[in-house]
Backbone:
């Protein structure tokens, strides 16, 4: 049985990349796409050149195609509505959209638990980015002070990035008193990034970038830098495909690719 899949945000940067990646998988069947921009998308995937029909009506697409999985790469303002429609119709969700609030995540968690339905929500589907979070978690046990720099293309709507927030979560809450022992005067604190869980996060937005994260640890006489670069959106595809397969086995919501990779 093939895993019947639909994409919300199909006409976007990630949506198009995901569509062409899915076409190469023999156990996954892409049965439709949804986007606010209704356009049929030409997908060039390996030797195959095909077209994906895009509609604006998610409910109608679900009723027509009976998909097993919805993949969402849309916008922080749209994602929850799409996920709610999918889950209420028994469609499992793989969510890559970032910028979900804590209450959104809680709502997904409890709906999935109550209805024993699977969902995977991950701010970063690149394997290397998941390893960066894990390495940062290990290093943070040995360094009191660290800051995160995240760099993305200038069309990204949320800041700090979901990956930077998740990395800070992995690193655990840090002592704010220790963090504030810097020589910077109070008046110029806005230049010091946003403090999340006691960790400063700096967000850079420039054309030419894709998704880049750097965690810098500092101690007396040494620094340690851990860095991951997504140089193209292809870097996210193995993680998305893994999530599509794994979500079929889940009866709850899982937050982060690290859980599926067991790292
Ligand atoms: P994009 O702007 O290129 O594409 C988003 C698409 O969603 C657009 O075509 C838009 O028309 C569509 N859209 C918006 N609301 C919609 C709705 N209600 N229904 C259907 N379609 C809708 O953005 P992008 O660069 O593809 O990124 C999308 C999201 O994915 C962002 O939140 C980004 O941060 C995130 N992202 C996550 C990962 C990851 O690994 N998890 C990687 C890259 C990007």
Residues:
């Amino acid at each position: 049985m093939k895993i019947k899949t639909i994409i919300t945000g199909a006409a976007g940067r990630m949506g198009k990349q995901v569509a062409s990646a899915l076409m190469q998988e023999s156990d996954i069947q892409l049965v439709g796409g949804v986007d606010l921009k209704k356009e049929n998308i030409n997908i060039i995937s390996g030797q195959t050149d095909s077209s994906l029909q895009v509609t604006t009506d998610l409910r109608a697409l679900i009723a027509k195609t009976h998909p097993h999985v919805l993949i969402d790469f849309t916008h922080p303002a749209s994602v929850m509505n799409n996920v709610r429609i999918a889950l209420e119709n028994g469609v499992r969700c793989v969510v890559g959209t970032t910028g979900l609030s804590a209450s959104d995540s809680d709502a997904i968690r409890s709906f999935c638990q109550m209805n024993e339905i699977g969902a995977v929500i991950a701010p970063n589907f690149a394997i290397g980015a998941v390893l960066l979070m894990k390495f940062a978690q290990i290093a943070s046990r040995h360094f009191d002070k660290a800051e995160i720099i995240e760099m993305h293309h200038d069309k990204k709507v949320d800041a700090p990035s979901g990956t930077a927030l998740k990395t800070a979560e992995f690193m655990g809450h840090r002592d704010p008193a220790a963090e504030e022992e810097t020589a910077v005067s109070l008046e110029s604190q806005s230049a010091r990034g946003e403090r999340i869980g006691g960790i400063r996060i700096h967000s850079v937005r420039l054309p030419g970038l894709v998704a880049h994260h750097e965690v810098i640890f500092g101690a007396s006489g040494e620094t340690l830098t851990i860095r991951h670069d997504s140089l193209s959106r292809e870097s996210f595809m193995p993680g998305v495909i893994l999530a599509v397969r794994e979500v079929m086995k889940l009866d709850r919501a899982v937050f982060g690719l690290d859980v599926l990779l067991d790292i």
